[in-house]
Write a structure and sequence with these properties.
Blueprint: H1 12-53, H2 61-65, H3 71-93, H4 98-101, H5 112-137, H6 145-153, H7 158-189, H8 194-207, H9 215-232, H10 235-255
Helix pairs in contact: 1-3, 1-7, 3-7, 5-9, 7-8, 7-10, 8-9, 9-10
């Protein structure tokens, strides 16, 4: 019998099993974070549908199906779903010292001056990149045009203005920082380098907005917040700065209406 037959190296099968286990650990590690993100958008859809069915804003399910934009119902849906999501995440974070682990209970490991300086440079850089992209890469296509259109169709009553400010400048920053930085970026960073975790979390953040042409612009700001969170270790700081950014953007948008 020919004894020269070559058999597979004994290391090949363990290597394959090790790679499979690592991939499984990665998927299972980020699955809860992705689940929270999916839940948020499911809540938005359900809350908006219920409010339209209830006639909020003069809407109806038939009207919505025919393309009749019901901005008030959508606005209420954003607010209600955000409140529910924040409440659910708050219950989740109460276990296993998660508040501390994601940096919700402190302003981080940098001084106020260092944090402010870094935040200024990062956000300014992101805004410049966003401006260049919107002006020279996709000229004539307004960033977040769908949101601006929806806001323009909502009657400008004191209640609606207050709800709009709360949804965009308060609720959205809290939910987005919790989901994409506190949960997703941290989960990703357990398995891949931090720069890759920031990029991937930022891509997911931009992609879920449902506007493919706006992904690079949305990613620029998300990367800035992701790096700031990595450096400071404080999600609380990120939430406050995100609120300030959204407030400024909202005021600028409304002043142009």
């Amino acid at each position: 019998m020919d004894s020269t037959e070559v058999s597979p190296l004994p290391e090949e099968r363990p290597a394959k099993i090790g790679l499979r286990n690592k991939l499984l650990q990665f998927v299972l590690g980020i699955l809860p974070s992705l689940g929270w993100i999916v839940l948020y958008f499911v809540l938005q859809i359900l809350c908006t549908a219920v409010l339209i069915a209830a006639g909020v804003g003069g809407g109806s399910l038939a009207g919505a199906a025919n393309g009749d934009t019901k901005g008030v119902a959508v606005l209420w849906g954003l607010v209600v779903s955000a409140i529910i999501q924040i409440g659910l995440i708050a219950l989740y974070l109460r276990k296993d010292d998660r508040y501390h682990r994601i940096g919700l209970d402190s302003f981080g490991n940098m001084s106020f001056a260092q944090t402010a300086s870094l935040a200024f440079v990062l956000i300014l850089t992101a805004m410049i990149a966003n401006f260049i992209y919107a002006t020279y890469v996709i000229p004539g296509i307004g960033m977040q045009a769908d949101m601006a259109k929806m806001l323009a169709e909502i009657p400008r009553t004191p209640l609606n203005i207050s709800l709009g400010f709360f949804a965009i400048a308060v609720a959205a920053p809290i939910v987005e920082e919790l989901l994409f930085r506190g949960l997703l970026q941290n989960a990703l960073a357990r398995f891949i380098p931090i720069w890759a975790a920031i990029l991937l979390a930022s891509f997911v953040f931009a992609a879920v907005h449902g506007q493919p042409y706006a992904i690079p612009g949305l990613m620029s700001l998300s990367i800035a917040f992701g790096y700031l969170y990595h450096r400071t270790g404080s999600l609380r700081t990120n939430i406050i700065l995100h609120m300030l950014n959204n407030s400024a953007a909202l005021l600028l948008t409304q002043s142009m209406v």
